[in-house]
Structures are given as structure tokens and as C-alpha cells.
Amino acid sequence: MLLHLAAWPEVEDYLKRSTGIIIPIGSTEQHGPTGLIGTDAITAEAIGAAAGDKTGALVGPTISVGMALHHLGFTGSISLRPTTLIAYIHDYVLSLARAGFTRFFFVNGHGGNVATANAAFAEITAEAAGGIGAMPSNRPEIRCKLVNWWDFAPVKALSRDLYGNAEGMHATASEVSVTQYLYRDHIKPVPAAGMSPRIAPVSHFFGAADYRRRFPDGRIGSDPTLSRPEHGERIHAAAATAVADAYQTFVGET
Ligand code: NI
Predict the structure, then answer these.
(1) Which residues pair with residue 24 across a beta bridge?
(2) How far is the CA of 175 from the centre of ligand 1 (A)?
(3) pLDDT tens-digit profile of 186-210?
(4) Which one, of 218, 163, 213, 201, lies nearest residue 33 by Cα?
(5) What is the pLDDT of residues 214-254, one digit of tens each?
(6) If you measure from the C-alpha of residue 31 to the centroid of ligand 1, how many angstroms do you get, rounded to a whole number?
(7) How far, in Å, CA of 65 to CA of 22, rounded?
(8) What is the CATH number of the domain that holds 208?
(9) CA 218 to ligand 1 center in whole angstroms
(10) pLDDT at 162 over 90
């Protein structure tokens, strides 16, 4: 059940059987010459929704804009500052906690969100427990967890089989395939001359301008010309199963 398609009495009923919720979190940022700018939000949303279908979990609205300051050298990218994203996650979670939700399971589509989301979780769990100096209490414990959909072993094995060392770190072949599966009408043509180099370079970077200088077309380590919608269907299915299992474990944990 998607929260934004539910009426409030349905959410009250849901809370009688579960206090867990799945929250997709992504980003709105360049994904190389052929990847959709919404890739990270689109993939997290679809995989989160599919995991919700499998488990009966409620799925919250997608956090579509994330921490992508390093992509701002490319037109169309949008970022929150880390402090803004912390405040956003804080307010989102505590609004639902007030109603009785206690288990917040974030399905993440963007590596750049990880550090900031975990900082937000530390703030939230401390505050929900009554603040940094609080004495132990019997109020319900708030737990937040974030998983990257591409990090599960079966998903990694599939992308390794399909793309080998051309999977890459950004504008990956697998994430582009998942968006091709979900939005076939928006598959971008590969430039006639291909991409150069075929597999993009890999290195560290400092800030948005340095990122663009080191990775002129936006890719890191990937060859998304290998992406196919049929691959995306398989990757999406593997990720949805893995995310659903991890959610069940999370909400079942004492
Ligand atoms: Ni991405």
C-alpha cells in the first residue's frame, strides 16, 4: 500500500498490524549521457514499491532529491545540502513516529545519501529517546535502517554476470537498465560514436567542478551502452526480493 494513495483510516488500520514503513530515497542528478536524471529516485521508488507489494508493508512518498552536491556541475542536477537532508528525514520520520510508526526502512538509490541519512538516523533515535541526556524510558524505540538496493549479493552477482567490470560506480549499467525496463518510452539513443572511453575512468574527486573535469560525460567506471530493458526487469526483480527479505528481518528483529 502506498501512503499517498491511502486514506487516513486505512493507515490507522495498518498500524494495528504493523508499525513498519518502507521509504524510498533517491536523487535527482546527472547519470551520464544516456541515463535519466531521475534514475536514483525512479529505481528506489520502483524497488521499494515492489518490496511493499511482496510484504504488505506501507510505502511512504519517495524522497526524490538527495545529497548530490558533487553532481551540480551538470545541468539539471538538484541537491539538498547535508543539513537540509538531515532536517527533511528528521521531520518525515518524526511525523510518522508521532502516529505510532517505529520501524523506518529506507530503500536507497544513491550512494551520496548514505552518510547524511545515517547522520539523520543518529539525530532521530537520540531525540525520539528523549534527547541526549534522557534517562532510560519505556517509550517505543524508533529504529531507522538504510539499504542500497544494488548492494545485495544476488543483485551484485547478476550485474557482475551481465556487465563484468563495465558495471561501474555511477551511471551504472544496471541502474540504467532498471530505468529502461520501467520507462521504455524514455530510453535514450546511444551516441553513434559510442561513449569514449568505452568504460569510464575511476578515481576520487573533490567537489562539483573537479568531478566534471575528471569525468567529462558524468559516468564513473561504467559502460551503460550495455544496458537493456530485459536486464532491468531481472535486476529489478532480484532487488525487490532481496529488499523484501531484508525488510522482514528488520521489522521482525527484537
Ligand atoms: Ni545512480
Answers:
(1) 107
(2) 6
(3) 999 998 888 999 999 999 999 999 9
(4) 218
(5) 999 999 999 999 999 999 999 999 999 999 999 999 999 99
(6) 6
(7) 17
(8) 3.40.50.10310
(9) 11
(10) yes
Q: Which three cell numbers stand for residue 204?
A: 576520487
Ligand 1: centre distance to CA 109 (Å): 6
| H-helix or E-strand spanning residue 180 | helix 173-182
Query: How far, in Å, is the centroid of ligand 1 from the Cα of 40?
Result: 5
Distance of CA 185 to the CA centre of its chain: 22
Domain extent for 176: 3-252
Distance in Å, CA 21 to ligand 1 centroid: 23
Spacing, Cα 239 to ligand 1 middle (Å):
15
Distance from residue 173's CA to the centre of ligand 1 (Å): 10
Angle between helices 153-163 and 173-182 (to 10 degrees): 100
How many angstroms separate the alpha carbon of residue 89 from the centre of ligand 1? 20
Q: Give me the helices (H) in 129-172, please.
A: 153-163
Give me ligand 1 centre to Cα 150, in Å: 10
Cα–Cα distance between 79 and 88 in angstroms, integer?
13
Whole-model pTM above 0.90?
yes
Structural domains of the chain, count: 1
